[in-house]
Design brief:
Its cofactor is K(+); Mg(2+). Helix content is 37%, strand content 15%. It folds into 2 domains: 208 residues, 3-Layer(aba) Sandwich (Rossmann fold); 260 residues, UDP-N-acetylmuramoyl-L-alanine:D-glutamate ligase. The chain is built from 15 helices and 18 strands. The strands form 2 sheets. It has an 11-stranded mixed β-sheet. The protein has a 7-stranded parallel β-sheet with strand order 4-3-2-5-6-7-8. α10 links the parallel β14 and β15. By secondary structure, it is of the alpha/beta class. The chain starts with a strand and ends with a helix. The chain is elongated and about 85 Å long. Bound molecules: ligand NAX, adenosine-5'-diphosphate (ADP) and potassium ion.
Length: 491
């Protein structure tokens, strides 16, 4: 998995890498500039448009100058604006300033005539990870001016003004694209920063993943290549018992759909036997819309231990007796998947939290999470609370949303890369519950069930939205689950 570095470790990484390879920091800057321009050529082919590159005094500005040179050599029309008089600048800024071709006009930003041609592109190379305080004065005014322009806006490494791992109250560049080097900076994953970040592109500047591992043991980004090694593989003689017997408990009157979505998602994820127990006084006559799913009744003497996994909470309603939930947890006594109304029940009966089987997987969305831990001021605080919750209760806490966070009981934090906005549709969380429960029932460790469930769910959403876009519904995600196995070459 791709490590996410925070704080000082980002600077240390660059320095250690340069030392270990015996290269100059200027060489690494050139690699970064080349990686950026390669991305740029793929997206912006028109060489007629005017490109305005604003360069700060540090190495982010140095990147901007190197990029200006490379783009100009490739025939693009470049205008450079720098922020300070040259002598206050970093060495690599200075070196790249001297290497600027003569045909590029470089002007102090104070002399900028504030003209941006129609269809122009602004590249923000003002500040990157070296930002040390909230922006103010002329720089803040400049960014405000750039933000009001109709040009396409691209940030190098980080939108200027945004700290790499926290929130800010100050002025921040609003990007349509953020092209960040090597790994996503934590703050680019916060929902409240979407207007600053735009589309996120992580580009490789030549620092190997293995090298990054030494600089972060806590936060990681889950990508496609991390998934297949976490899967279990089945053989020619595998029988349906090997694929697991799973049970879903939920579905109060009026909310049966949620229970069926979870159950059917489990079948499509590969479960051998799927049962569902609706929360009805008499569920015998209920029509299950899928032939493959069995109806089940949870009675006081039912032996729940015969199940390999249980997913509980989808459409369960808000009238459940906490002691009933407790008895289920005690009787099952293995990690289970806890979602929706079951999470609300934990929140309103905190004594139950102590009884949740260790390594269970809780899948709250932001509102449900706040019911568990109280109000939070921002996503940074939400992440902190998710981490402490997972450690305290020895559970896996999946905080759903864009870049879903998987907080593990040992304190590690995994952020998901798959999925898109079209998944914000009713029932999509129930599908996730079904998928994670299915993997758990197939004998995956809770950690691998959580990782595979979250990644495949996002990928299924991406695949379904290719043709459905905002018209996509949760059942469309289910129909694409099998294709995710094909895409990832999982048998
Ligand atoms: N070898 C390296 O270290 C590499 C660094 N790279 C680039 O370098 C960037 C980091 O460079 P730096 O560490 O020089 O930092 P930055 O260029 O992000 O900013 C540091 C400069 O901005 C000033 N500054 C910070 N906050 C300010 C504020 N609020 N108001 C006014 N001035 C402020 C500082 O005094 C310093 O001069 C990365 O984001 C990346 O773009 C890339 O070239 C890859 C290689
Ligand atoms: N913008 C987004 N990007 C990626 N995934 C998203 C986005 N919005 C929602 N999702 C995913 O969709 C699911 C929604 O779950 P949830 O809020 O519980 O919905 P519901 O209660 O309707 O089932 C979660 O897995 C979440 O991560
Ligand atoms: K920047």
């Amino acid at each position: 998995m791709l490590p996410i570095l925070v704080g000082e470790s980002i600077k240390e990484l660059d320095q250690e890498f340069i030392l270990s390879k015996g290269i100059l920091s200027l060489d690494l800057m050139e690699q970064a500039a080349n990686a950026f321009t390669n991305w740029f050529y793929g997206v912006f082919e028109d060489k007629e448009v005017q490109i305005y590159i604003f360069c700060g005094p540090g190495n982010n500005g140095g990147d901007g100058l190197a990029i200006a040179r490379l783009l100009s050599e490739n025939g693009y029309s470049i205008n450079v604006f720098y922020l300070k008089n040259e002598k206050d600048c970093s060495n690599d800024f200075q070196a790249n300033f001297e290497r600027l071709p003569k045909n590029i006009s470089a002007t102090n930003f104070e002399k900028w005539d504030k003209k941006i041609e129609d269809g122009g592109i602004i590249i923000d190379a003002i500040f990157g990870v070296g930002l040390s305080r909230v922006l103010e004065g002329p720089i803040s005014d400049l960014i405000c001016e750039l933000n009001s322009s109709l040009a396409t806006r691209i940030a190098i490494d980080l939108p200027s003004g945004l700290p790499s791992d926290s929130v800010t109250t100050g002025q921040v560049f609003h990007s349509d694209h953020t092209v960040t080097f090597q790994f996503p900076k934590l703050s680019l994953l916060f929902p409240e920063h979407i207007q600053f970040t735009g589309d996120l592109h992580i580009i490789d500047i030549g620092i190997e993943d293995g090298f990054l591992q030494d600089f972060s043991k806590k936060a990681f980004y889950i990508r496609k290549q991390d998934i297949s090694s976490r899967h279990r593989f089945f053989h020619r003689f595998s029988h349906k018992g090997d694929f697991g017997r799973v049970l879903f408990i939920g579905g109060a009157p009026g909310k049966l759909g949620a229970l069926f979505l979870s159950s059917y998602a489990a079948l499509r994820t590969g479960s051998g036997l799927v049962s569902c127990a609706p929360e009805f006084e008499d569920s015998i006559g209920i029509q299950v819309p899928y032939n493959e799913i069995m109806l089940y009744q949870v009675k006081s003497n039912t032996d729940l231990a015969e199940m390999d996994a249980i997913g509980i909470g989808s459409g369960w309603g808000n009238t459940i007796d906490p002691d009933y939930f407790l008895s289920i947890m005690i009787r099952f006594n293995k990690p289970m998947v806890i979602d929706a109304d079951a999470i609300n029940l934990l929140a309103s009966n905190p004594f139950l939290l102590q009884k949740v089987p260790k390594n269970s997987i809780l899948t709250p969305h932001v509102k449900e999470f706040e019911r568990l831990v109280g109000k939070v001021a921002n996503h940074a605080e939400r992440i902190e609370k998710a981490i402490s919750f997972a450690i305290k209760y020895e559970v896996i806490l999946i905080l759903k949303g864009a870049h879903t966070l998987i907080a593990l009981p040992d304190g590690r934090q995994l952020f998901n890369s798959s999925g898109n906005q079209y998944m914000a549709t009713a029932g999509s969380g129930d599908v996730l519950t079904g998928m994670i429960t299915s993997f758990l029932g197939q004998g995956y460790t809770p950690e691998n069930a959580a990782i595979c469930g979250v990644f495949h769910h996002g990928l299924a959403g991406e695949l379904a939205s290719e043709s459905k876009r905002r018209g996509m519904v949760a059942s469309d995600i289910i129909e694409k689950i099998p294709t995710t196995f094909v895409e990832l070459k999982i048998s």
